[in-house]
């Protein structure tokens, strides 16, 4: 395993762990979500079935993505085409999130930390995949 492959595995696993943390809000009490929303300076989080469904299902989807990312990190050579695809999707997703964050006027720290981070992470992962020998 060369240096680039080791770094790629570490990045994938760190990403996976970060994404898997989304399991917490998927099951946390809605009152906690409301408190966090307020603490972030975004006002009151509306209550209702659709808000509860969207917050929990999105969190679960992030965690599902984290499980997939962790799984491919176990054998990056074997899953190299999928890792490249995940990296490209990550870049596109990051751009989309940046546009969305700006459009809905998310807090500046949120805007700076979400989309750009995802774009850079995807770019670094894509660059590293070019240095990994396929299985």
How would you sum up this structure, described in words?
- The chain has 135 residues and is mainly alpha-helical.
- The protein has one domain.
- Helices cover 76% and strands 0% of the residues.
- The protein is built from seven helices and no strands.
- The protein has helices at 3-20, 23-27, 30-39, 49-73, 80-103, 108-113, 115-129.
- Helix 1 (3-20) packs antiparallel against helix 4 (49-73).
- The radius of gyration is 17 Å and the shape is elongated.
- The model has no long low-confidence stretch (mean pLDDT 95).
Question: Quick summary of this structure?
Answer:
By secondary structure, the chain is an all-alpha fold.
Task: Please describe the topology of this protein.
Blueprint: H1 3-20, H2 23-27, H3 30-39, H4 49-73, H5 80-103, H6 108-113, H7 115-129
Helix pairs in contact: 1-4, 1-7, 5-7
